[in-house]
Specification:
This protein is an alpha/beta fold. It is 40% helix and 14% strand. Strands 4-3-5-6-7 form a 5-stranded mixed sheet, with helices on one face. Bound molecules: zinc ion.
């Protein structure tokens, strides 16, 4: 059993984009701050796990089911925007350019990592196409996101809806997460037919 400090460094270093140096700095920061602050952090971490879950319709992260967007009668139900991860919804919402519903795949196709259509929520998407006129593919503009978009276009189009893809004005290999709102808004407005 490692000592408590080494254990904390180990846990922190497992977080995305936290290297061993940052993990060590954060662990020493935790040692310095008052216990109440550490409790607030620990409780916030546990609350996220205890109170949030995936929307049963779109897979977004939510505390109510269906989520706020799926339940909103003002949303345009004839449009479905497909994203890879729940955190991709926020940036698209902030553009104010899109008023339809979302579908979160919970990943992207990656043959070399063994991630095929059954490992992401393609079946959930296909089950939601009733009454949908347009499927907007907003997967990331990198190799995996493009492969996913091409695959989805192939399986969705025969079922009726128009399939469009964001017209990325951002560098290839980029990520929706790191694209500014103005660029993302233009990408949505200028989406092209696949
Ligand atoms: Zn939802």
């Amino acid at each position: 059993m490692p000592d408590p400090l080494a254990r904390l460094v180990g846990e922190l270093a497992r977080l995305p984009s936290i290297g061993p140096k940052t993990a060590t700095r954060l662990a020493h920061h935790v040692l310095k701050v008052p216990r109440t602050e550490v409790e607030a952090l620990a409780n916030a971490l546990l609350e996220v796990k205890d109170e949030l879950f995936h929307c049963s319709a779109c897979n977004a992260i939510t505390a109510i089911d269906p989520c706020r967007i799926c339940a909103d009668p003002q949303r345009d139900r004839s449009r479905l925007c497909v994203v890879e991860e729940p955190f991709n919804i926020g940036p698209l919402e902030r553009t104010g350019e899109y008023h339809g519903l979302y579908h979160v795949l919970l990943g992207a196709l990656s043959p070399h990592r063994g991630i095929g259509p059954d490992e992401i929520d393609v079946s959930g998407l296909l089950a939601r196409l009733d009454g949908v006129e347009e499927v907007v593919l907003a997967t990331n503009p990198n190799v995996e996101g493009e492969a996913t978009a091409l695959y989805l276009a192939r399986v969705v189009k025969p079922r009726g809806p128009r399939v469009t893809r964001l017209a990325f004005g951002m560098p290839v290999g980029g990520d929706i997460e790191y694209t500014d709102e103005a660029t993302l808004g233009r990408s949505l407005a200028g989406r092209r037919e696949l």
